[in-house]
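Sequence only, no structure available. Ideas?
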Amino acid sequence: MAAVRAEVLIPRSLHSDIPTYVEFCNQAGEVARAWWLDFNGNPVCYGDISPGKHLRMNTYVTHPWVFRNAVNDAKLLVNLEDVYFPEPPVDEDGETVFRQVVITSPVYSLKDYCSMLIRKLVKEGDFKKLEIAESLKEDLKEAPSLEQELRQLNAAHNAKC
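Reply:
I predicted one. Tokens follow.
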């Protein structure tokens, strides 16, 4: 019997057949960095969006987007999801519209929030001097990473399949 190989599905752009128009609205209260995932799943930066501001973008239906805090790379949500896949540009009346897409902060765990604050206030070389558990010192060394989170998304998707 032949072995069945699970296909690794990476969030990535598929094709550029159906153009669409989005307006990313930053309601996160922090500067959001926009990342388009290219045809290989590699993140491509499209700039920063200040709190309360927006970014209009011409994109395509199969082109995914993710957002991160521009200062510490912490994950932000887009329409309450980790990854945004644009919708067709036509509304229910058949009119072409810019789709409003809302960027927000997730509810971070207390541990994650404290880790972000410590990383902001303490130099990385001084983590070992903190009077906290060794496991927490190790966790502090693992700052948020877009590439790592994309790998986790892939693993979670593959686990569902």
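The chain is about 20% helix and 25% strand.
Hope that gets you unstuck.
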